[in-house]
Amino acid sequence: MIGFGDIWRSAGGVKLKLIKSLDLALGGMIAFLLPALPERSPDGVIRRILIIRPGGIGDAVFLLSIIERLREQHNVEIDLLCERRNEGAFILARRFCRSIYCYDRWPDLWRVVRQEYDLVIDTEQWHYLSAVVAYSTKASVKAGFSTRPLRTRLFNLTAGYDVNAPELQNFTALFGLIFALDPLTFSPVFLQASRRTDLRRVALFWGGSVIERRLTVEQVRSITGGLLAQGCAVLFLGGADVVAEARQIKAQLAVSVPVQDLCGRLSLADTVEHFRDCGAFIGTDSGLLHLAAACGVPSAGIFAMGNEQKWGPQGSRDLVIAARQDPADRVVFGYTFVACPGRRLVLTAARVNEILEWAKGILK
Predict the structure, then answer these.
(1) Same domain, 166 and 265
(2) DSSP readout, 80-96?
(3) In which domain, by residue range, is 229 found?
(4) Where are the strands (E) in the chain, listed by range?
(5) What is the pTM of this model?
(6) What span, in angstroms and rounded, lies between the C-alpha atoms of 206 and 150?
(7) How far is CA 299 from CA 32, 75, 312, in A?
(8) 264 and 348 share a domain?
């Protein structure tokens, strides 16, 4: 159980911690006061569904394969309720969706709760307020994860949640309560279309919202130098948090080296287009790592904490680097707990060589 003390001890900004505290206090109280729903399965043809997915890009990317299969195999109309911070991931699958709404645009939320749905599936793993929203819709059946007793009361159908299982496995179990889906792969077909595989171009990402998961500038320069020595072209990816670092690293390298710096310049759709021309991706635990793997790009994921078996890329050509700095570092239901706040991930020379050897083998 995660309490208020855990929320404020976890990594992240004050705004995010206030939102999580509000979810625990207000969401928990509402969940307690609402009458429990009876167990019930859909009793007719399912034509319209709402999928709820708050949170970051990573979880959204894990749902793309399911959205593709639902639309193509079951011909249902799909609406999505997400957040502005992960909306870009769902826009990638826009052609499979009827409408995309955002939690944090109040007119959107109002439209959603007024519409008629045959089914609402809340894919949030832990927090209360998404379950309250699902409960508030006019859907005949509400489904979600049974991770907390009060959340479980707000659904007609629930699936168990394995904290150590790959997330696609958990999502498949949830949707499997209602839909029979062919065996899923993490890489949806539509993201892999027209991908070139003959290029010696490596995308490199070292940023992220949690500073303790980021590589140091020196580590990035070392990996970049090793890739350049192998004759690879390197593409820097990232958000505004690493723009200055990318410029610094590129300036410290030789002027003529083939490094393209696109940090802070790309949407997710633009990033996907660049992935089509990449032979490999190297990155820290992040939404971009999951997106690269979903696009079918052989990926090396570097994990400073958390469960790399759960979140690491699963492909036969992928590499997972477990580089936990302290046994106390961990991630639980999206809460990151670190022993030394502010300390960045540092890879040993052996780990750097392992990554470079992997890239050499992938791009041979």
Answers:
(1) no
(2) EEE-TTTHHHHHTTGGG
(3) 195-362
(4) 48-52, 77-82, 99-102, 119-122, 141-145, 157-159, 201-205, 233-237, 259-261, 280-284, 299-303, 319-322, 330-332, 335-337
(5) 0.94
(6) 38
(7) 43, 32, 9
(8) yes
Give which of 293, 98, 67, 306 is closest to 210, Cα–Cα: 306
Residue 304 contacts residue 285 (beta carbons within 8 Å): yes
129-136 vs 106-114: helix axis angle to the nearest 10? Answer: 40
Q: Over the chain, what is the mean pLDDT? A: 91
In a domain, 349, yes or no: yes
Q: Which amino acid is at 85?
A: R
Structure tokens given for 96: 């499979």
Residues 179 and 209 in one domain: no
Give residue-wise pLDDT tens across range 63-106. 999 999 999 999 999 999 999 999 999 999 999 999 999 999 99
What are the tens digits of pLDDT across the range 216-240?
999 999 999 999 999 999 999 999 9
Residue type, 70: L
Identify whether residues 30 and 161 lie together within a single domain.
yes
Q: Which of 134, 151, 185 is the last residue of a domain?
A: 185
DSSP code, position 342: T
Q: Residue 23 has what DSSP assignment?
A: I
237 and 174 part of one domain: no
328 in a domain, yes or no?
yes
CA–CA–CA angle 7, 10, 11 (5° rounding) = 130
- pLDDT tens per residue across span 26-59: 999 999 999 999 999 998 899 999 999 999 999 9
